[in-house]
Specification:
Distance between the termini: 9 Å
Number of helices: 13
CATH class of the largest domain: Alpha Beta
Strand order of the largest sheet: 8-7-6-9-10-11-12
Number of strands: 16
Number of domains: 3
Strand content: 15-25%
Low-confidence stretches: none
CATH topology of the largest domain: Rossmann fold
CATH superfamily of the largest domain: NAD(P)-binding Rossmann-like Domain
Shape: elongated
Structural class: alpha/beta
Mean pLDDT: 96
Length: 389
């Protein structure tokens, strides 16, 4: 079986190499694709072909993908969590130094100096007092979100002899094992804001995180605090931050999302979305998502999906496998099993997982599954998709 992959952006060659040419046709202008592979392209207004079985983003955020609409069609959306974690961590640490030592403002000052060397030296000695900063050891960093990036940032900050407080009510067991025992746990967001000299955000944008940094929470922070945002622009209330900077309550805001209102503010460093902009991060994301996509297309396994449950079932020697996505309602597995039993098919192995309103089932049988049986499974009310892999 061969597969066709539609690319909407340039994808690192290192990642595409994980899709063997004898089984995969990969192109930016391909018809009836089995999957879509992208980075930042906006899919919300795109007519997604009926042939599409999966969408994979070589990155972490999926705001550019219509995840809800795809879920209703039984299409998993994959991303590459953690593949760009080191790149973002390094930029966050750099952002702390930029804010603490007023580096960008000071550099801008020296670039404007005129005259001979003596004039420049005199201006430097006279002007440097305007850029007096502070040191990081002993300061408290509050990390909102302890996923792959948040954990790396927290651990690195401890290495800078900072105190670190973290908050993530949904931290996974895997991330908890990776997190240093020196990171203190905040009771809630208000507690974290009140204890922090610097706040860094590492959460997705959704209804719960929109304007997470707002006027009320900024008032809880220590005077002269710093906010770092390398997650998503709308997680921070821009108006609230500007007002806090103008009043002196905040010392600096460093972010990856320039807008007309903030790009020229003297207390704001707005970078051009550099978080994952390293060769290594792009390669890591492409490799991870290509391997994930291949495992799904060839084996039906689901890893690193933002809408489907994790579902990995080792292949049974010989036989056949059917992969089914359906509404998470009672008796779905029973109805599917009945379709197989009615034609005398034996189930060799089965895995059923659910996530919210979605469920996903992998079934291995001892023999090939006839096309009409797959059609009957697709006809069950609540089944969103079904295919032999």
């Amino acid at each position: 079986m061969s597969f066709k992959i539609l690319t909407l952006n340039h994808i690192s060659v290192r990642g595409l190499e994980r899709l063997p040419r004898d089984r995969y046709e990969v192109a930016s202008g391909i018809g009836s694709p089995d999957a879509v592979l992208l980075r930042s392209a906006d899919m919300h207004r795109m007519a997604i072909p009926e042939s599409v079985l999966a969408v994979a983003r070589a990155g972490a955020g999926v705001n550019n993908i219509p995840v809800t609409a795809l879920s209703k069609r039984g299409i998993p959306v994959f991303n590459a969590p953690g593949a760009n974690a080191n790149a973002v961590k390094e930029l966050v640490i750099a952002g702390m130094f930029l804010a603490a030592r007023n580096i960008c403002q000071a550099w801008g000052y020296t670039r404007e100096l005129e005259g001979d060397d003596q004039s420049v030296e005199e201006a430097v000695e006279k002007g440097k007092k305007k850029f007096v900063g502070f040191e990081l050891p002993g300061r408290t960093l509050g990390v909102v979100g302890l996923g792959a990036i948040g954990v790396e940032v927290a651990n690195a900050a401890l290495g800078l002899r900072m105190r670190v407080t973290g908050y993530d009510p949904q931290i996974t067991v895997q991330r908890a094992w990776q997190l240093s025992s020196g990171v203190e746990q905040a009771v809630n967001l208000d507690d974290l804001f009140a204890r922090s000299d610097i706040i860094t955000l590492h959460v997705p944008l959704n209804d719960n995180t929109r304007a997470l940094v707002n006027t009320a929470r900024i008032k809880l922070m220590k005077r002269g605090a710093v906010v770092l945002n390398f997650a998503r622009a709308a997680i921070v209330d821009e108006t609230a931050v500007i007002e806090a900077l103008d009043s002196g309550r905040l010392h600096a805001y460093v972010c990856d999302f320039p807008t007309r209102r903030i790009k020229d503010h003297p207390c704001i460093v707005a970078l051009p979305h550099l978080g994952a902009s390293t060769d290594e991060a792009e390669e890591n994301c492409a490799i991870m998502v290509a391997e994930t996509l291949r495992d799904f297309l060839e084996n039906g396994n689901v890893r690193n999906s933002v809408n489907f449950p994790e579902a990995v079932l080792p292949r049974t020697n010989g036989g056949c496998r059917v992969a089914i996505a359906n509404d998470n309602v009672p008796n779905m597995v029973g109805q599917i099993s009945t379709c197989l039993a009615n034609v005398g098919m034996n189930i060799a192995d089965l895995l059923n997982k659910s996530r919210g309103e979605l469920a996903y089932t992998l079934i291995d049988t001892d023999a090939a599954i006839p096309a009409d049986v797959v059609a009957r499974i697709r006809g069950i009310e609540g089944v969103l998709s079904a295919r032999v892999v």
